[in-house]
DNA sequence: TGCCACTATTACGCAAAGCGCAGTAGTGTG
DNA sequence: CACACTACTGCGCTTTGCGTAATAGTGGCA
């Protein structure tokens, strides 16, 4: 199974999770996701997800100048984003529990 | 989060899991998945998955006449399918563990 | 000076896959 | 004869992750 397909529908949640810890900019979010174990995530996917979540009203955004490269566009969760995180995390927990029991039956 | 997106990349594994228990035909697989908790799975998705897995050489297929409706096209796992199941299940386990730790950090 | 390498973002288009819906068809019930 | 349930197929839509290219700033090295 191509693990990239597994990200469908979950990358939003993963991005919300790292931003819930603390604000971050695109490049930083990519690094943190990869360090967390999602080492195959593409940078374009993360940038796209950030834009999508921002457009959906879940994120705040502010630009910060950097002394070691170009400017950085930081993103952070607002109330909508925190609500989205909570409900997505719950949905994910239920779904993964369902899959776990399904796989256990097939053993 | 739309839980239908979560199925992407996982429906294959779910179908392989129910067929690993015992052979089944499309309509039957749909029912068993829904009973297992994947109540939102669409029938067209399952039929498509069965065809795709069969085309990929993971399934055997045989038609059985039914006395309570049209004929039934049964599917079962062959060696390729069992191998696919094993590797997909392992990939899924690793992925869900990664997500679990990511969500735990964000608490 | 010129050439990389790293940081950082955006835009374009592709491909996979689940789903809605329509269509076909067999069986049994009122 | 209309309807409901079973059972399968095909078409087109949408979402979404990804590959690739383009743009741009900074710093190191020969």
Summarize the structure.
Chain A is α+β, with helices and mostly antiparallel strands and 107 residues long. The first copy, chain A, has helices at residues 3-6, 11-21, 26-36, 43-55, 79-105, and strands at 24-25, 59-64, 72-77. Chain A has one domain: Orthogonal Bundle (Arc Repressor Mutant, subunit A).
Jot down its keywords.
homodimer, 5 helices, DNA-binding, three-stranded antiparallel sheet, 13% strand, 107 residues, globular, alpha+beta, Arc Repressor Mutant, subunit A
Written overview of the protein:
- 2 copies of one chain form a homodimer.
- The first copy, chain A, is α+β, with helices and mostly antiparallel strands and 107 residues long.
- Chain A has a single domain, classed as Orthogonal Bundle (Arc Repressor Mutant, subunit A), CATH 1.10.10.10.
- The first copy, chain A, is built from 5 helices and 3 strands; from the N terminus they run ααβααββα.
- In chain A, strands 1-3-2 form a 3-stranded antiparallel sheet.
- In chain A, a hairpin with a 7-residue loop joins strand 2 and strand 3.
- In chain A, helix 2 packs across helix 5 and helix 3 crosses helix 4.
- The longest helix of chain A is centred in the last third of the chain and has 27 residues.
- Chain A is globular, with a radius of gyration of 15 Å.
- The model of chain A has no long low-confidence stretch (mean pLDDT 91).
- At the A-B interface, helix 1, helix 2 and helix 5 of A face helix 1, helix 2 and helix 5 of B.
- The structure holds a DNA duplex (30 and 30 nucleotides).
- Chains A, B: It comes from Nonomuraea aridisoli.
- Chains A, B: Pfam families: PadR.
- Chains A, B: This is PadR family transcriptional regulator.
